[in-house]
């Protein structure tokens, strides 16, 4: 990614030579850098082994704790597209500083917080970190001195920019900014997702307030109606994954998930969604790496969601219970107890379908005069499956 960032800096300098303001340059860098970065799913965490029959309390796994500590302790690098919020903010700030724009990284306890604002309990927000980043002669990120020293816990990082028009906050994690930039929704939106005035930050960082432009919605709905012409409304969910395939190479898991949620909530008309899709999150992790998948259960179908780079060969979109069992659950495990229960339900459904298949085979066998011994063997197979279903059900309950 180093060469691409150098190109962004050069293009930004050209914009300045052509009379563009620092605000326009800061927005340009935000958009162009957003096309390159993907959220690093290695920072996601799993849970220790749990017993769903005992409703045991969830605890972050030791592998997750070690991996996250390693990520946070590393210096941010422009050589990798995969970044967490810390790296995103430090790289963006360093680019602006390189361009002579006043920018700093802000470390906060929670995403919506702003230095000096008043919390609901009346306390004044004193953020744990404010510092400048820049590039050294080898084009590595160099961190300046932290202006704060209150030892508070850090939960998030973003950039703050001082411009003639006022102070602005840049944050790729808010407003699904990475998704909006990559699908080009940003061209039809009067607001730039992830870039806003400081005084707007609390509202704009609230996920409930995420907005998508009406122009974009109308454009994609035209494609939707053409796609489902002559089909049942249930095919609307197929459409979401067909659209996702257009962008998946540029998405990490987090962006892919945000894309599906956004389309299901904002693009597909409510009357076309007959039931709430059920997400099942699966994880494969060790102390160095973490990969996350999600199976969406909608109607009688399952849909596989993953990032663009995955160890699973299965394509995104519809996936069968057999494929989940044979190709996914051999490597991935349910992330939380609730995901485990949902997987058990799929396994019960699979076994019930097997019973239906066996019952049909038995009826055909009897009608065609198959030997009693063969029919008895089929009956035993059916009873075995019914017994295993009973065991699954008792564990879930």
Question: How would you characterize this protein structure?
Answer:
With 397 residues, the protein is of the alpha+beta class. The protein has 3 domains: 2-40 and 80-206, C8orf32 fold; 214-335, no CATH class; 339-396. The chain is built from 12 helices and 14 strands. It has helices spanning 2-17, 22-36, 62-73, 85-98, 177-182, 201-204, 214-227, 236-247, 253-267, 321-328, 337-367, 372-396, and strands at residues 38-39, 82-83, 102-108, 129-131, 133-135, 141-143, 156-163, 166-170, 195-197, 278-285, 290-298, 301-305, 317-319, 333-334. It has a 5-stranded antiparallel sheet with strand order 4-3-7-8-9, covered by helices on one side. It has a 5-stranded antiparallel sheet with strand order 13-12-11-10-14. α1 (2-17) packs antiparallel against α2 (22-36), α8 runs antiparallel to α9 and α11 (337-367) packs antiparallel against α12. The two termini are 50 Å apart. The relative contact order is 0.10. Residues 354-359 and 392-397 have low confidence and may be disordered.
